[in-house]
Each structure stands twice: as structure tokens, then as C-alpha cells.
Amino acid sequence: MNSSHEQNVFRVKNSWNGNFPSFRRPEVIGYWSVNGSRDVSYDSSQLQYYSPPKTTEVRFDLNRGINSVLRKPEDLDERIDHLLQWIGKNSEKIRANPTTKRWLQPNFISYRGLLTKIMKTPYDMREGWIICASKWRGSIYLCHFDTEADKEDKANITPRQMAMCSWGFKFEQYILTEVPGGSPDPLKPVNECEEFDCVFQTRLREHELLYGGEMDGVCSDERLRDPLPLEKLKFVELKTSRILENDRQWMNMQRHKFLKWWCQSFLVGIEDILCGFRDDSGIIRQLENYKVSDIARNSQKYWKAAAAMNFCDNFLRHVASTVRNDCDRTVYKFERIPNGDIYLTEVPPTSDYAFLPPWFRAIR
Ligand code: A3P
Ligand code: MG
Ligand code: MG
User: Fold this and answer.
1) What spacing in Å lies between the alpha carbon of 239 and ligand 3's midpoint?
2) How confident is the model at residue 3 (pLDDT cuts 50, 70, 90)?
3) How many domains does the chain fold into?
4) Domain RAI1-like: where (predicted)?
5) Which domain holds residue 148?
């Protein structure tokens, strides 16, 4: 790193060797629900129970009721607002030790999906991304923004692609119930706005992390009531995938899907994934259980869990050392160029990339 131009580049290739970094088991410290109108409530009203069928040979039609699906509005621009609102209500719980100069204990605050994106970066050459960083009272908040290519993809989505995006939600409906031991009700129209989110706290090497993540289903034989027993919650991740017909498809699944599934699940301490394999017309025919630890072990030919974690650790260190000003002076925009490195641009607090709202910054 010699010239001033070079200082603004984070090289992807140099940043992932080494042993598995220390990572504390993530702890659930809170939760919220989002209803069908995207209103937030600080309860478990949207928590769903894992109620898989007894057999693995199934016939779940994911197109059932596809014309009455309620999708998220396209212009929804929530950024990290739900997480900030949770923090606003729970700041006492996560206050920093007075010996630090921070307001809150975590160094980094974000959604789990953003950390997944960072972790996949060394293996996902084609994907570009934009992550903005805002420093406030000693912590760095991270928020994902669409690239020009993301915007173009969204603008050009075909009806078939739209339907396929809804298949995953429909699958959840065949597996989850509102009460433990209940029967799934796949006749109900899916409302894709509804979700249940947890807040996790952990440490990756020296970085104290706090992140929110949407959870698919909880394993419990008993009805769980608010306040939920946070230390006992065990979640499962649900996924769909196309039926595999040859070695090339199996290799692609290990190389790409398994990496994403592992990152997403490992970050929230999930041990089990249930995958529904579907055909091209959206019928799930087979269910398969995967252990998250097996996924990492069996995919080593294609990617290493340690590399994903080391990359994340190194990138966060880079962010911590570059993000110096508070967000009322500077917002830091990191952009990963497809097949390239990560470039930093500093943008003013009046930019569209500024994402910490005035009400949040007014909290004392
Ligand atoms: P699949 O995972 O079966 O593809 P998640 O698995 O992360 O809980 O997401 C649930 C479902 O939301 C996905 O099911 C998919 O249908 C939809 N989904 C998630 N991320 C998406 C994205 N980036 N674009 C389109 N659909 C998405
Ligand atoms: Mg989910
Ligand atoms: Mg899922």
C-alpha cells in the first residue's frame, strides 16, 4: 500500500489464510416480530414451530395459491431501521462498560445477511456489493445497498423468477405451524411481509458483534410464551433447492449454496437445515436434513469455513481502521467490484447512503 489511491483498496485475495479464528457461540439477546403490514411488535407473535412431516418422500406444490401471495412492497426501504428501533428500546441491555469510550458494547452492528455477504466474498467472484459504514458514539453500523447491477436485476425480474422467489416462503408454510404439534396449513395465502427476528451477540476475534437475523422455525414441543426463554431457543433453517440430476449440479450446490447456507446458519448457531428438493414446476419431492457442521466438513474441496471467517475478521479490521469520522461528518461506502477488490469512497452525511436516522442519533 504505497500511493494514496492504494490506501482505498482492500485486496480480496490476500485476506483469508490462517486457522479458524476465535468465535464465541452467538447468544440470542432479544427478538421482535413483523406482521403482514410490516409493523413491528416486541413479542413472539410471528414465531413459528418446526413441524416436519414424518416421511421424506413428499409432494408439496409450491405454486398453490401463488396468485394470492402478498409480497413485500418493491419500494420498501427499511435499511436497518428495525434493528435500530430494537436498540432504541433495549440500549440499557447492551450498554458498553463505562471504561470504553463507546455508548454500546458492540463494535459492529448489522444484519446477519450482511456478514454472510462479507464471508462469501473470497469465493464469490461474480458478486458485487455495496456496504456502507456509519460510526456513531464509538460503534460502527453497517448497511447493505443495492449496486447498479442489483437494481437492474430487480427492474428486469420475470414473472417466472417472481414466482420462484415465492416458492421458498410456500415451502416454509408446509413445514411450520403456529402452535407446536399443529398441522401445517398450506391453503392459507402466504404473506411474505411476516417474519420473526432475533438479535444475536457474539465476538469474532477482537470484534464484538451484534446482529439481527430472520429465523425460520423454532424446535419446541411446548408453546413458548413471552418473554421467550432466550438461552433455550433452538432454531432450524429451511431451504429449497432444485433436484440434483448429475455431478455437476451436486458440485455447484456444494460450491455455492452450501457456502451460503453454512455462513447464514453458523452465524446464528443453527445446527440443522431442512432442504426440500423441488422439480422445475415447483413440486417438492424429497426432504433432506443437513448438519451445518457436516456441510463445512464435506465442502472443503470447494471452500474453507476458516477462510470465510478470516476474511470477515480481516475486512472488519480494515473497516475499523478506515472509519474514523462520525456519521454526521462522513459515511464510508465500501464497494466490491465483481471479479475485483473492495474500494472505499467517502460520502457526505447528506448522501442517500446515510442510514442512521436523526431520531436514532437523538437517543441519549
Ligand atoms: P429458499 O431459501 O428456499 O430459496 P431464507 O432461506 O433466507 O430464510 O429465505 C426464505 C426464502 O425467501 C427463500 O427460500 C426465497 O424463496 C426467498 N428469498 C430469500 N432471499 C431472497 C433473495 N435475495 N431474492 C429472492 N428471494 C429470496
Ligand atoms: Mg428465513
Ligand atoms: Mg430459510
Assistant:
1) 5
2) very low
3) 1
4) 24-361
5) 20-50+68-231+303-359
In this structure, the dihedral spanned by the alpha carbons of residues 153, 158, 160 and 161, taken in order and rounded to 10 degrees, is 10
* CA nearest to 120, candidates 268, 320, 356, 305: 305
Nearest atom (ligand 1) to Cα of 192: 12
- What's the start-to-end Cα distance of the chain, in Å? 40
Query: Is residue 286 assigned to a domain?
Result: no
Phi, psi of 119 (to 5 degrees): -60, -35
Q: Is residue 115 part of a domain?
A: yes
Answer for the pair 318, 98: CB distance below 8 angstroms, yes or no: no
Confidence of residue 7 (pLDDT cuts 50, 70, 90): low
Contact 104, 95 (CB under 8 A): yes
Rounded Cα distance, 134 and 357, in Å: 11
- Tell whether the model's pLDDT for residue 12 goes beyond 90: yes
Nearest to 212 by CA among 60, 309, 84: 84
Under a CB-based contact definition with an 8 Å cutoff, are residues 240 and 278 in contact? yes
Contact, 87 vs 106, CB < 8 A?
Answer: no
pTM of the shown model: 0.97
Give nearest CA residue, ligand 1 atom 26: 165
Q: How far apart are CA 319 and CA 344, in angstroms?
A: 10
In a domain, 139, yes or no: yes
Helix axes 112-120, 258-266, angle to 10 degrees: 140
Q: Which residues are bridge partners to 284 per DSSP? A: 60, 278
Ligand 1 atom nearest to 240, measured from its CA: 3
**According to the model, what pLDDT value does residue 1 have?**
39
Cell of 190: 402466504
pLDDT, tens only, 132-171: 999 999 999 999 999 999 999 999 999 999 999 999 999 9
Q: Is the distance from the beta carbon of residue 122 to the nearest atom of ligand 1 less than 6 Å?
A: no
Looking at the domain assignment, is residue 167 inside a domain? yes
> Taking phi first (over 0 means left), then psi (-120 to 50 degrees means alpha), and beta for anything else, what does residue 181 get?
left
240: Cβ below 6 Å to ligand 1? yes
Q: What are phi and psi of 310, to 5 degrees?
A: -65, -40
